[in-house]
Amino acid sequence: MSPDTVAGNVSDDDKMRVVRLMKLVRESERGRWCFRLMDELRLVSVDRKPQFEGKKTDIVLEIETVVDEYMCNGWDIAHGGMISTLLDFATSMPLPLLLKGDDAWGATGLSLSLSVNLLSPALKGDKIRCVVSTKSGGKRTATSYGELWGPRGLVATATHIKMVPQQGLASQSIAQYIAKM
To answer: Is the pTM of this model over 0.85?
Structure first.
């Protein structure tokens, strides 16, 4: 994926940071059940949105995919676990831009809490879009919020709180990714 294909007001370097992180996570899932989901996601846009008269900046990104049969239960409805996985992944992606330059975070930190609300079905064949925004970021925790939209409206929401991993707990692949950032 090239930064030219991703909309938004962040620099091409920042777009590439998100693209590289998506690739890193996808590759770390190779051979696991969620690899296919990660492989089919498309980064649509990444924006910086000033808040509170410029005193704070939120990172907003959009990711989309089409609900495929393997994502569904026996009724051709996207499985809640698959939706939760998508929201877990998507709500982690903006954090490196929010916490830029803070190596203590690893690539995206560790999940402390992920709360998902399933509101309406996404059906096989539906194009779904996840809109994520950061809400806060500090030395120990960061919070992001995601909404998953389908053709019939809001499918699910998520609040994701991430934390700094304890010293030495980041994997080697994450450490290598950070070195390239």
So the answer is: no
